[in-house]
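Pasting as-is:
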Amino acid sequence: MGAGYFRPLTERAAARYTETHSKRRGRSLLRFLGQSEVRAVDSREQLRRVRSRLRWSLALLFVIAMVLAGPAATALSGLSRPALVDILRVLVVAATLPFVLTAIARRVGGAVEELADSHDQLLHLYSEARVDALIDPISGLGNHRAFQEELTRQIEDARRQGHTLALALVDLDDLKRTNDEEGHAGGDQVLGAMGRLIGTACRAADRGFRIGGDEFAILMPRLDAEMATSVIRRVLAIALEAEPQRRGARSFSFSAGLSAYPEPAGDGQRLFRQADAALYWAKTHGRTDVQAFDRERHGAGDDARSVPELVTAVLDVATRRAVTPVYQTIFDLSTGDAVGFEGMVRPAEDSGFRNADALFLAAEAVGRTAELDMVCIGAVAEHANLPDSSQYLAVNISPRTLETDQFHVSDLLAIMEPHGISPDRIVLEITERETIDDITQLRENLARCRAEGMRIAADDVGAGNAGLRLLSEIKFDIVKIDLSLVQGGALRGSAMAVLRAIRDMALQSGAQVVAEGIETADHLEVVRALELVAGQGFLLAMPTPEISAAPLDIDSFLAARDARRRTLGGFLDLEIA
């Protein structure tokens, strides 16, 4: 990458920076300017060659003239007077011709020299324009076009030389709020601060780019995913530290996702997809986080298919209804009775998606979430066979679906009615792992659903800050605590504190609390100690194709755990049931 891409620049200083550092970054700059300086040198060399050829041509003409006049001069004695005059005329022409041609050559050479100078100036202007075209004026980093060119080049270098290449995609947190509160000037200050931070906190070999409104990319040659994660976490720590003693410094936060070549990404396109999938996960799980791509956690980010191919694959699943519903029972933790069933889906083996996360991540990426949501809800309702009681059926629905003007409660009721599921037995679980863009439209559609008798649940609360904020903005009938907090509560006091806070917020609003992810007796003990009334997880019941309403002896799980503890001398039971 050229000199202008490595360190943050102000718009005014960009040209000065390029000139000052052109020698130090000469070879990189030539690579991005299309060898324009080399072509300028070539034009001067061509001018020198033209002049040399003109001189040789003049000399050759003079020699030819003298050779032709020589034989005539030797026969002067036998020639008449007119012939002698003609010979003298030839000699005069031969002697004069070089001077005439020299004058012509000077005129031609001057025109050629002017043309060469104009050519050099044009190349210089082109070089400056190309530098300007590849620099983002606000952050001083390379722009999206520069990123695409450098990514291609660095992938090729890494492949040829056999070294690694890491890519980090960075998204600034709450830049829109900064623009709303401080105006675009305030937002530009944050963008500039991020550019300066990348320039000072990253290695000299790293390349920073602003590739979108609030999104940046950092290419880190010769680093694997683990080492790159350490670098970006250090950058995040610096961003969070306010330094008022530094003029113009301000604290801010960002979310980042990264991956590396050649493992786990085998090419540049997959490298970007994986980093983007990790970034998406970080943003939808509370932000202010750095995530290295993980195939199990981040879904279809390693899917090498193009966007049109993903659209076709998602629509094929929706058209064929190529999903299989499964149901997990939700139990009353005091009585062991089943209070409800969560309906989930698994993609068919021939769908092209290995799990539901990969399927919905692809649908989100290509804007087909609403269509897929309704198909999955229909599959869950069709095979539900609810017992004739007050137990409810919980179905997952994305905020993307509820935010659209195309969502109609009547469509949802039309799906449920043929299977005998009344609205008062339907619980809509809104996952907080996806960002919410239009909270007003979401509230309106939820109000229409509640008016029909449906209940609303907040799913995966505690997986990120967004869910906690959502609790204060929307009234929920059920609050489901994310499994990460439930499992962490068995080991960490900080998780217990968050669990208590979420419980108190839910109870104050009159909502029922359901603990997810109960996988061991220790998890169950934590949940019961907090007096949470309901729970679900692998310890209590695995997801199955058929609904099971059989009650459980909850106390037996704790009794079996205590017996194992006594047998093992007090070791904790952390096995997954």
